[in-house]
Structures are given as structure tokens and as C-alpha cells.
């Protein structure tokens, strides 16, 4: 089966282009490993999501954890997106990139006291609260600052999103949220606490979800809870439905935002409630490529290895999840085709980018690109094996801009100190 080229990419005279730029030009000037993003594709993905929910009161909040580069956050903010954050660092990034505080929601199970204070001082839209103790901590922090803390209660609906175990978040065995069977008293506690302004409910059931069914099931459960609360005098203004809508890595056919909106619209009819939506992967995954160059070829008899200069510290998803990413040559090859593992230099057997891929036998120095690497790529990277992290580039039309400098060897040891009084 032929793998489809990444969005915005095409071979022209046997050279791979992204938008109106030959990728070899970028790689030649910026080096490898290198993350490359398409501005046009990110905006297209955002518009598809926002317009898909046009018939419902909603706000799209970009899940910053998917890719936290300031240029991408700023691009989405200018298009109208808010931000879903999970740390004070992401709050800092979002505010620095121009996201209005009133469009920021703070999620996550383990918010520190200093992070709670920073968010309160910034004036964010609300906290998604994961436990009674967190709710009480926010109440205390708000009292110390003489502020009211806007919150939603995160409910765990015990719905199977039918995705990888490591990215499932809405089942009862997961660490996230308050079990729906125990949620009512927590909402009532929030309504009573003096410094808490209870605004809504939050659910998030996982990532890389391919159908709308888990969302519909989740929504029905949370709306039943909302109706019970309404009968008991507690009105919710917001319903944060989370993110998690899947993208195509290989040959998947994920549901679209428009399909999702259509399938949940009936349940929301005649309800005075605003949906908050937290896409991350959907907005940036297929807009990103990881470029790398071939260092060596190895034929060990039983198999072929293509050793490249990108590694698991640059793109961890294959090692973490055995995730599939399509791989394409920068120059369309017409020679001998081989089946090979594409591996990196890191001293781990788990250091691979692709396994058992059929591709034209590349020469040393040839360039390859790993597709659908815009989400959970650079942000999950590390300096393991003391490897500086890659540069990042944004392509816009026939131009490209470095949006993060490549780390240097000095960056590896910045902040380290050898004691002088041994």
C-alpha cells in the first residue's frame, strides 16, 4: 500500500517540497536533525476545528503540551485559539506568545502552590480541578490573594476511548479526574467554598481517538450529571470536552471535527452552555516533519539498518509507544529497494524511528523526513547521550524561518557546576 505524502508536501523534479520551499534547501542551511513545520497546515487544521463547531457556542483551546514552541502558540492565538496548559511553564509560554489570560484553562493532576498562585494572578479563565485536596488548595490560595478562583471539576466518566493504554485518560483505573459516581459531593463542595467560583465540568478521555462514539457516550454521562446538579441548584456555564481527536499516521480514517460536532449537537440543543475544546495533536501533528540524514548503512545478513543522525532523544514516540511514522526521502529514489530499520546513534536497542520499511537504498548523506512529527516530538525530546536538541523551522509560503536555534555543546552543561571545595 502506497503511503500518502504529508499535507503540503509534493515531489517536484524528484525533490520533496513543503509548501513552496524545497526541503533540501532548508536542511542544507539549517542542518539535521531538524523539525520543520508548515504554517499553512496548522492554520488549516485550526480553521477546520473551529468551523466544524460553528453551530455550537464554543472556544478552541490549543493543548500546549502537544508542541510548545512560542511561534506556533502565537500563530494559533492570532487565529483565535486560547490555550489549555498543564504547568506554570506553559502558562508563561502562552502569555508570552500573546494568549489572553481569559482564554487559558489550567489542567493537570498535580498543580503546585506556586503554579496555582501564578494562574490566579494572571486571571485565567479557570482551573480544571482533579481532586478534593486540589480544590481546597486553590480555595486557600485564592483567599491569600483576596481573589475568587474560577474552576471546573474534572470528572472521570469511565469511558474506554479505544486508544493506546498510555494515552487513555478517562477510564476508572486512570489517575485523572474524580470518578463520576463520586462527583456530585465535590461539585457541591466547590459551590460552598468561599473563594471558589464554580463554572463548569471537565472531561478528557484520551488521545488519538478515532471515532465519535466515546465522545457521545462521555457527553451523555456528563450531561446527566449536569442535569442532576441543575435540579439541586448548581448551574454550569462551561463544559470542557477535552481534546484527543485522532490524526492519520498510516492509513487510519479518523473522525473529523465536523462529524464530532454533528454527533453531539442534538444532546446540547436548548442548553445554555459553552463548549471548551482542547485539540493539540489534531492542530500540529501532520504539520510537522523531522528531517534527518543517513550516516551509515549496515547489512547484517538477516536485515538491513539505515543509521541516521536523528534518534529517540529527538523523537521518542516510536520507542515509547511503538508508534508508526511514515518516512520519505528528500529525493525520490529510483534504484534498488530494500526493507530496513531506520535507527539512530543512541546506545539503546529501542532507538529507532521506523522498523521494516521498504524504501530506495539511500546513499550516505542522503536526507529523509519522518512524517506527522509536529505533536509530541520536540517537546518530548531530551539531551540523552549528551545530544544537543534539534533546531525548529517554520515554513510560510516560499519562505522559512528558524523558530528555535539548535542547541550547542555549551547548552548541554549550562547551569552545571563542578564543586571547587572537594
Summarize the helices and strands and which ones pair or pack.
Elements: E1 9-12, E2 15-18, E3 21-22, H1 23-30, E4 34-38, H2 39-52, E5 58-63, H3 70-79, E6 82-85, H4 88-96, E7 104-106, H5 113-122, E8 126-129, H6 132-144, E9 149-156, E10 178-179, H7 183-192, E11 196-202, H8 213-231, E12 238-240, H9 257-268, E13 274-277, H10 281-284, E14 288-299, E15 304-308, H11 317-321, E16 327-329, E17 337-343, E18 352-360, E19 367-370, E20 391-396, E21 399-404, H12 409-413
Helix pairs in contact: 2-3, 2-9, 5-6, 8-9
From the N-terminal CA to the C-terminal CA, the straight-line distance is 62 Å
Cα-atom Rg, whole angstroms?
Answer: 23 Å
CATH class of the largest domain: Alpha Beta
For the report, how would you describe the main beta sheet?
9 strands, mixed
Record field, number of beta strands: 21
Rounded mean pLDDT score: 94
CATH homologous superfamily grouping of the largest domain: Alanine racemase
Structural category is: alpha/beta
- What proportion strand? 25-35%
Please tally the helical runs, counting DSSP H or I stretches of 4 or more residues.
Answer: 12
CATH architecture grouping of the largest domain: Alpha-Beta Barrel
Low-confidence stretches: none
The helix content, as a percent range, equals 25-40%
Outline:
globular
The CATH topology of the largest domain comes to: TIM Barrel
Number of separate structural domains: 2
Short descriptors:
single chain; 422 residues; alpha/beta; Lyase, Ornithine Decarboxylase, Chain A, domain 1; TIM Barrel; nine-stranded mixed sheet; eight-stranded parallel β-barrel; 12 helices; globular
Amino acid at each position: 500500500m502506497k503511503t500518502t505524502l504529508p499535507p503540503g508536501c509534493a515531489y517536484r523534479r524528484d525533490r520533496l517540497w513543503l509548501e513552496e520551499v524545497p526541503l533540501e534547501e532548508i536542511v542544507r542551511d539549517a542542518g539535521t536533525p531538524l523539525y520543520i513545520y508548515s504554517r499553512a497546515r496548522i492554520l488549516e487544521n485550526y480553521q477546520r476545528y473551529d468551523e466544524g463547531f460553528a453551530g455550537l457556542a464554543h472556544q478552541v483551546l490549543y493543548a500546549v503540551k502537544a508542541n510548545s514552541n512560542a511561534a506556533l502558540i502565537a500563530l494559533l492565538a492570532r487565529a483565535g485559539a486560547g490555550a489549555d496548559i498543564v504547568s506554570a511553564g506553559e502558562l508563561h509560554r502562552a502569555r508570552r506568545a500573546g494568549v489572553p489570560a481569559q482564554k487559558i484553562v489550567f489542567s493537570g493532576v498535580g498543580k503546585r502552590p506556586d503554579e496555582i498562585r501564578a494562574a490566579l494572578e494572571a486571571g485565567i479563565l479557570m482551573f480544571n480541578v482533579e481532586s478534593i485536596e486540589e480544590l481546597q488548595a486553590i480555595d486557600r490560595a485564592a483567599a491569600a490573594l483576596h481573589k475568587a478562583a474560577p474552576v471546573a471539576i474534572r470528572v472521570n466518566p469511565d469511558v474506554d476511548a479505544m486508544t493506546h493504554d498510555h494515552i487513555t485518560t478517562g477510564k476508572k483505573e486512570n489517575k485523572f479526574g474524580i470518578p463520576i459516581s463520586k462527583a456530585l459531593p465535590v461539585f457541591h463542595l466547590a459551590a460552598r467554598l468561599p473563594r471558589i467560583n464554580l463554572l463548569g465540568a471537565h472531561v478528557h478521555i484520551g488521545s488519538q481517538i478515532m471515532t465519535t462514539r466515546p465522545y457521545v457516550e462521555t457527553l451523555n454521562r456528563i450531561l446527566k450529571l449536569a442535569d442532576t446538579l441543575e435540579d439541586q441548584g448548581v448551574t454550569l456555564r462551561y463544559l470542557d470536552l477535552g481534546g484527543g481527536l485522532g490524526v492519520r499516521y498510516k492509513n487510519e480514517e479518523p473522525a473529523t471535527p465536523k462529524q464530532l460536532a454533528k454527533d453531539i449537537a442534538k444532546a446540547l440543543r436548548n442548553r445554555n452552555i459553552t463548549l471548551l475544546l482542547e485539540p493539540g495533536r489534531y492542530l500540529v501533528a501532520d504539520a510537522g516533519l523531522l528531517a534527518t540524514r543517513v550516516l551509515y548503512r549496515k547489512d547484517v545478513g538477516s536485515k538491513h539498518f539505515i543509521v541516521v543522525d536523528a534518534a529517540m532523544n529527538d523523537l521518542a514516540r516510536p520507542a515509547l509507544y511503538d508508534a508508526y511514522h511514515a518516512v520519505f526521502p528528500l529525493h525520490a529514489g529510483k534504484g534498488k529497494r530494500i526493507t530496513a530499520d531506520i535507527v539512530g546513534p543512541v546506545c539503546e536497542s529501542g532507538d529507532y524511528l521506523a522498523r521494516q520499511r521498504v524504501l530506495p537504498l539511500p546513499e550516505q548523506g542522503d536526507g529523509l523526513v519522518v512524517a506527522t512529527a509536529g505533536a509530541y516530538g520536540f517537546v518530548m525530546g531530551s539531551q540523552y547521550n549528551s545530544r544537543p536538541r534539534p533546531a525548529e523551522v517554520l515554513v510560510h509560503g516560499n519562505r522559512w524561518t528558524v523558530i528555535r536555534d539548535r542547541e550547542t555543546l555549551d547548552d548541554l552543561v549550562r547551569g552545571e557546576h563542578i564543586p571547587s571545595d572537594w
